[in-house]
Write a structure and sequence with these properties.
This protein has helices at residues 21-31, 52-56, 81-102, 122-132, 146-151, 157-173, 185-190, 244-254, 271-280, 297-302, 323-331, 341-350, 361-372, 376-393, 396-414; strands at residues 7-11, 35-40, 63-64, 67-71, 110-115, 136-140, 176-179, 201-203, 230-235, 260-265, 286-290, 306-310, 335-338, 353-356. The chain is an alpha/beta fold and 417 residues long. The chain folds into two domains: 7-207 and 395-414, Glycogen Phosphorylase B (Rossmann fold, 3-Layer(aba) Sandwich), CATH 3.40.50; 211-393, Rossmann fold.
C-alpha cells in the first residue's frame, strides 16, 4: 500500500481554541507529515459567546500545528434553546456555501467529520466530498434525533421525524460511519435504509487528550491539595444532561457527615443556575472554579481523590460514553459514576471505581462515602487499573493509526491515488 502523504479535510463546528478532541487528531496527522485543512466556525463553546481573543485578532487563529484553518460565519450558541438551534443551522448552511467557496481549487484524499451535535455538520462534508470525489468519514459521537429529544431541545414528534429523515439522508450518503460506542450500532442501522456493508460501520471510540498521557502530571495553583478532606472533582460542560441538581443533592446530604469537598470545573448553560444554588443552599463544601484551559486539567485531576462523571438516564445516554471517561481513566485517579449503560460498564470492567444509578443522589452520596473510606493504597490501585484499561482500549496512538489505515484503504477504493 502506498505510504504517500494524505490530503485530509476536517469538517467540525468546534475547533481550537475551543478544547476539543479533534484538535489532537489534527495535530497528530500534521506531525506525521500529512496535509490537513480544517473547515470550522468561530470559537464560542461552551459559554455561548465568541471568544474575545478571537474577536480582537482573528488572523491569529488561521493556522494550528501547520494545519490551515478556514472559518465561516455563524451564530453563537447563546444561553437559550432558540439561539442554540440558530447556531446549529447557521454553521452547516454557512459551511456548505461559504466553506465550499473558500475551499475552491483544493483537492482532498479524505474528508473527516467530527460529528458531535449537531449532525448537520456532516452535510457540507458530503457536498464537498461529492464535488472533490473524496471519501467521507463521519465520526458519530451523538445520536440524532434522539439526543435532541433527550436534552429537551426538540420535543414535537413531527419535528423529530423531520430530523430523523435528515439523519437517514446523511448516513446513507456517508462512505464510512465511525461509531464511538458499541451501543450505537443498532441505532445507526435503523436510519440506514440501504444495505450497509459491514466495513462501512466501524467501532472507533474516543481517546484522552494528549495532556492526560503523562503518568506524572504537574500540580496546579487552581486547587491546593488538602489531605484533611476527600476531594471529588467534576470537569466538563455544565448542561442539563450532566444532572447537576442530583450532584448538589449528594453534596448537601454529605455536608455534615464527612469531610468531602466537591470541586466543579467548567462552564455551560447551567453555570449561572449552579452558582445561585450553591449560594442559596449554603453549600460551602462545593467549590466552583469556572472554565480553565485544557492544560490545567491534568494538574487539577492529580490534586483530586476521585473524578466524577454524571449523566441523565435515557435510551440515548445509556449508549454513550462521555469523552471525559477516557480522560479520567488516563489520569490514573479513581472514578465515581452516577451513570447508566456503556459508561457504567466501562468503569466497572476497568476496576477504576464505583457507580450508582443515574439521577440517584443518595446513591452517589453512598458510593462517595465508600470511596472516601477506602484505604489509600487501594485507591491507588483502582486508579492504575483504570489507566491500564485506558491504554489497552483507548490509546490515541493505536486509534489514529487505525484511522490512517482506513483513510488509505478508502482512497485506494475511490481511486484517489
Amino acid at each position: 500500500m502506498s505510504q504517500s502523504k494524505l490530503r485530509i479535510l476536517v469538517v467540525t463546528q468546534y475547533f481550537w481554541p475551543e478544547n476539543m478532541r479533534i484538535n489532537d487528531l489534527v495535530r497528530d496527522f500534521t506531525e506525521k507529515g500529512h496535509s490537513v485543512t480544517v473547515l470550522t466556525g468561530v470559537p464560542n463553546y461552551p459559554e455561548g459567546e465568541v471568544y474575545k481573543e478571537y474577536l480582537s485578532a482573528p488572523e491569529c487563529f488561521s493556522e494550528y500545528s501547520s494545519a490551515e484553518i478556514f472559518r465561516v460565519p455563524m451564530a453563537a450558541r447563546g444561553k437559550r434553546s432558540i439561539s442554540l438551534v440558530l447556531n446549529y443551522l447557521s454553521f452547516f448552511s454557512s459551511a456548505s456555501i461559504i466553506g465550499l467557496y473558500k475551499l475552491r481549487g483544493k483537492q482532498f484524499d479524505a474528508v473527516f467529520v467530527y460529528a458531535v451535535s449537531p449532525i448537520m455538520s456532516a452535510i457540507p462534508a458530503l457536498v464537498i466530498g461529492r464535488l472533490k470525489k473524496a471519501p467521507v468519514f463521519v465520526w458519530v459521537l451523538d445520536l440524532w434525533p434522539e439526543t435532541l429529544r433527550a436534552v429537551g431541545v426538540l420535543k414535537h414528534p413531527a419535528l423529530l421525524s423531520m430530523v430523523g429523515k435528515m439523519v437517514s439522508w446523511i448516513y446513507n450518503r456517508t462512505d464510512y460511519l465511525l461509531l464511538q460506542s458499541h451501543g450505537f450500532f443498532d441505532n445507526v442501522k435503523r436510519y440506514c435504509t440501504r444495505d450497509i456493508a459491514p466495513e462501512r460501520l466501524v467501532y472507533f471510540p474516543s481517546w484522552a487528550e494528549d495532556d492526560f498521557s503523562s503518568s506524572a502530571p504537574q500540580g496546579t495553583q487552581l486547587l491546593i491539595r488538602d489531605e484533611s478532606v476527600f476531594t471529588v472533582l467534576f470537569a466538563g460542560n455544565l448542561g442539563e444532561a450532566q444532572d447537576l441538581p442530583a450532584v448538589l443533592d449528594a453534596a448537601e446530604e454529605l455536608r455534615e457527615k464527612v469531610a468531602i469537598r466537591w470541586v466543579i470545573v467548567g462552564d455551560g448553560r447551567m453555570s449561572e443556575w449552579l452558582r445561585d444554588q450553591v449560594k442559596s443552599r449554603n453549600l460551602d463544601n462545593v467549590l466552583l472554579l469556572g472554565r480553565h484551559p485544557l492544560e490545567e486539567m491534568p494538574g487539577l485531576f492529580a490534586d483530586a481523590d476521585a473524578l466524577l462523571v454524571s449523566l441523565k438516564t435515557n435510551d440515548v445516554f445509556e449508549k454513550t460514553i462521555p469523552g471525559k471517561v477516557q480522560a479520567y481513566l488516563a489520569s490514573g485517579r479513581p472514578l465515581l459514576g452516577m451513570i447508566n449503560g456503556e459508561a457504567a460498564r466501562v468503569i466497572v470492567d476497568s476496576g477504576a471505581g464505583f457507580t450508582c444509578e443515574s439521577g440517584d443522589a443518595s446513591g452517589l452520596a453512598s458510593i462517595t462515602m465508600a470511596l472516601a473510606n477506602t484505604d489509600a493504597s487501594e485507591l491507588g490501585a483502582m486508579g492504575q487499573s483504570g489507566r491500564q484499561y485506558y491504554l489497552r482500549h483507548y490509546s490515541k496512538t493505536l486509534l489514529l493509526a487505525r484511522l490512517e489505515d482506513l483513510f488509505r484503504k478508502a482512497t485506494l477504493r475511490k481511486g484517489v491515488h
